[in-house]
Write a structure and sequence with these properties.
Oligomer: homodimer
Number of strands of chain A: 2
Largest interface: A-B, 57 and 57 residues
CATH class of chain A: Mainly Alpha
Largest sheet of chain A: 2 strands, antiparallel
Helix content of chain A: 55-70%
Structural class of chain A: mainly alpha
Number of domains of chain A: 1
Mean pLDDT of chain A: 84
Distance between the termini of chain A: 79 Å
Low-confidence stretches of chain A: 117-137
Shape of chain A: flat
Number of helices of chain A: 5
CATH architecture of chain A: Orthogonal Bundle
Chain lengths: ~140, ~140
DNA sequence: CTTGCCTTTGACGTCAACGTGAGGTTTTAG
DNA sequence: CTAAAACCTCACGTTGACGTCAAAGGCAAG
């Protein structure tokens, strides 16, 4: 397969594939004229890379994890990174959940005209500047 | 409160607060000499802004949502954006879950030396270039 | 008054994951 | 055989949320 085919099947741009190769995430054979040639499995690999990117892993982390993924056993440091990223993802999910809850509160608040129900979201009128009576005097 | 206090209590940098103000997300009174002064509630507001940033909302969206959040009722367009962002967050959570599952599979695979259990993750050795026997000739 | 930390504006740097041409070669379709 | 489509390698541009440095001014303590 050439780069355009892989790109289309994996749902990314050819540029992205060249970028992945530049980052060491993806290898390719070359035709005598220099064009990239991929095996079918490249599509799967690209999709996995995409998943990890979507999960917020930087390319450097993916680079360190891919050997571990390929061989099935990684160095202890890679394993540690693996667990750390897993934890980070879990935390990110919690953050998303809390933000979504905040938006849901706003939605509820917009649906029921009861502005008193959620004082945490209402801004108390911004008081004008007062010379801040000196704490200890 | 001055900018440093708010920054510390909200867990962000002073630079971030100036940036928020620049983007219209945060207002401030000024002392006669030009220094920013915030009410206590600013801390809460900054934390909310941070939540939304963490959830992946761009500053422009937050800017359009904050009036809605402050007043408790938004324009229909703001309401639409609200729902759209909520959906986006839900989708992002699903993506994170799927990526975490992928990592979990790798972790399992690293723990149990049974490389055959997960063929989807194993790279079939990259075959060297073959002139791709012409399909029709 | 001086010392030392905090704050101001302004402007440029960063980092990531590509996008977007330029300018040229290769492959494919008719 | 020719024209179009796909590909190649540079190499600079983009976007967002700040970081960072510079030069200057503010503010409480000793």
């Amino acid at each position: 397969m050439r780069i355009g085919d892989v790109a289309q099947r994996a749902g990314v741009s050819p540029r992205a594939l060249r970028y992945y190769e530049e980052q060491g995430l993806l290898t390719s054979e070359r035709t005598p004229s220099g064009q990239r040639v991929y095996p079918d499995a490249a599509v799967e690999r690209v999709q996995l890379i995409q998943q990890l990117f979507t999960a917020g892993l930087p390319s450097r982390s993916i680079l360190r994890l891919l050997p571990c993924i390929d061989t099935g056993h990684g160095s202890p440091e890679a394993f540690e990174l693996l667990a750390a990223e897993r934890d980070r993802i879990t935390a990110a999910m919690a953050d998303l959940a809390s933000a979504r809850d905040a938006l849901d509160r706003v939605i509820d608040l917009a649906n029921h005209p009861t502005p008193e129900h959620c004082p945490a979201l209402r801004e108390p009128a911004w008081a004008p500047y007062k010379p801040e009576p000196v704490t200890a005097h």
